[in-house]
Amino acid sequence: MNMPNNNERYINDLIDGKLNYIHIDRKGDFSNTNIDWKDTLILSGSFNPLHKGHEELKEISTTMTKRKPYYELSIKNAVKLTISTDEVFKRIGQFKEKGEVILSDATFFTDKSHIYQGAIFVIGADLCQEINNPVYYGGEEGLKKSLMTIKSNDCRFLVAGRFFNNKYHAVDDLMNIRKEHRFLFESIPENLFRLDISSTEIRSMNKEKEMTHE
User: Where is the Cytidyltransferase-like domain (predicted)?
Assistant: First the structure.
């Protein structure tokens, strides 16, 4: 897949740590524009694939906060290794005319909060549960330090309810958020947004469709 060299150069600079993020506009053009994050909304994900749920979540969050929305895709993943350049271009291609994208090298929300100071992160309740799990931080102290870093960078979370572990969870159903951290997590009311399907389920449905067409 031959992409313009300029775009590949931006991605290489991101991989090499020369850039913290790349801005991709609705036409798919790359730049390293400086953005003031104070009035922005960031919907992070792997977008494999981008689906209606993501787009609806972006619309609802924008209406709720009156902030400018961006999708954010990281070239690194907490579980998997760095995404290949071809895969990055493929995923970015989904956003053409649908929204602006930030491509970053930040794996964790603590890192993201340093880059996007003042932003609100839009997440699902399943991810919210993971963010509040001390296992990922080497214990309670690490978790507290991470969340206080996010707070000191003037960032917070807007959380959509999600169906996982066989039931629907909103923020208040998550037992692992400590009272002193609860203020960082604002709930998106269920009557405004509810998503019962995940990207994983959509991927497996698409695979089944492909197999039936073969």
Answer: 43-204
How far is C-alpha 1 from the geometric centre of its chain's CA atoms?
26
Write down the residue that tokens 């924008």 correspond to.
62
Give the Cα separation of 102 and 32 in Å (integer).
10
Q: Which two tokens stand for residue 171?
A: 């923020």
Q: Under 8 Å CB-to-CB from 99, ≥6 apart: which residues? A: 26, 55, 58, 69, 70, 71
Task: Provide the pLDDT for residue 44.
Answer: 92
Specify the pTM: 0.85
Closest CA to 133 of 124, 122, 144, 123: 144
> Residue 6 has which token pair?
């300029």
Domains of the chain: 6-212 (3.40.50.620)
Angle at 110 between CA 150 and CA 128, to 5 degrees: 80
For the ranges 29-38, 108-117, 166-175, the lowest mean pLDDT is seen at: 166-175
Residue 87 to residue 47: CA distance in whole angstroms? 11
State the Cα–Cα distance between residues 136 and 143, nearest whole angstrom.
8
Q: Which range, of 15-24, 28-37, 83-92, averages the lowest pLDDT? A: 83-92
**Token duo for residue 153:** 């960078």
Q: What is the pairing mode between strands 120-124 and 101-104?
A: unpaired
